[in-house]
């Protein structure tokens, strides 16, 4: 099964092709240029270099969030357009779970953290065992002290935890000060980056499990209200 993966939820724009659990191609750009300028050229260039066409793809896997509102809208809109135009099924994949996929070879509990704002983090907890991921706590927004409390609780059981995502580096000092660093696994920097290959690998598993949807059903998962929604609510309150 050929799966086209798309990742635009953060600073990185990334596209990948996976087939039968093998990464055939991946193109990633982290140059500080907006995804609206780069993502379609990245996708087109990767397909041309790999000698494949969009019509060969059997499934589209896209990062559903949480993450940058603008970035998510670009990825979701692109996947939706391609899916509807080419009658290709879509699989939405949690951005946080894709981070856990980057360290799926770690046997234990994986804290996935994406910086949201101030002391807020997008958070989810996964259990990795034998190259498979199980969701322990679903994606949500938590304050840093609450995340640290969860980490300490697991370490108190004598267990080593893995932490992955840019949220770790944002609060590395605070996390290391509070935790037992002997029971803390921090992967190499590359594994903290969002990856379309991880999206595609997880998407292929979901598709094989019959969890694909149509493009018209695809929606982003923000977890937090957008700025426009907050401003609208504030406007209603002041009226």
Please write the string of helix (H) and strand (E) elements: EEEHEHEHEEEHEHHEHH
Supply the CATH architecture of the largest domain. Answer: 2-Layer Sandwich
Rg to the nearest angstrom? 18 Å
Pick out the low-confidence regions: none
Q: What number of domains?
A: 2
Give the CA-CA distance, first to last residue. Answer: 54 Å
Main-sheet strand order equals 3-2-1-4-5
**What is the helical fraction, as a range of percent?**
25-40%
Describe the overall structure.
This protein has helices at residues 35-50, 69-86, 95-101, 144-155, 166-170, 172-178, 196-208, 227-238; strands at 2-7, 13-19, 22-29, 59-65, 90-94, 108-117, 120-129, 132-143, 161-164, 184-185. By secondary structure, it is of the alpha/beta class. It has a five-stranded mixed β-sheet with strand order 3-2-1-4-5, sandwiched between helices. The chain has a five-stranded mixed β-sheet with strand order 8-7-6-9-10, with helices on both faces. Strand 2 and strand 3 form a beta hairpin. The protein starts with a strand and ends with a helix. The mean pLDDT is 94.
Write the layout of secondary structure elements.
Elements: E1 2-7, E2 13-19, E3 22-29, H1 35-50, E4 59-65, H2 69-86, E5 90-94, H3 95-101, E6 108-117, E7 120-129, E8 132-143, H4 144-155, E9 161-164, H5 166-170, H6 172-178, E10 184-185, H7 196-208, H8 227-238
Parallel strand pairs: 1-4, 4-5, 6-9, 9-10
Antiparallel strand pairs: 1-2, 2-3, 6-7, 7-8
Helix pairs in contact: 1-2, 3-7
